[in-house]
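can u do me a favor
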């Protein structure tokens, strides 16, 4: 099946909407809490396949990242 990467040619292996890899992984929340880009993985339920967690564009939520305070 076509994994529907954002841009295979440019090395962008994030999953696009409609990818068969979305919610196809196994819950491993006890092992790691974020993806390769620092985005949170779900605490329970199916993960996306690959190093990047699929983040649906749009919606009514915000992702906040903590920065070290100097």
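np, heres the sequence
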């Amino acid at each position: 099946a076509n994994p529907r990467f954002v841009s295979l040619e440019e090395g962008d292996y994030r999953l696009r909407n409609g990818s068969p890899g979305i919610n196809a992984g196994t819950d491993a929340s006890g092992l790691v809490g974020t993806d390769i880009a620092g985005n949170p993985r779900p605490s329970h339920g199916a993960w996306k396949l690959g190093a990047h967690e699929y983040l649906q564009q749009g919606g009514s939520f915000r992702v906040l990242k903590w920065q070290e305070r100097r």
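The mean pLDDT is 71. hope that helps!!
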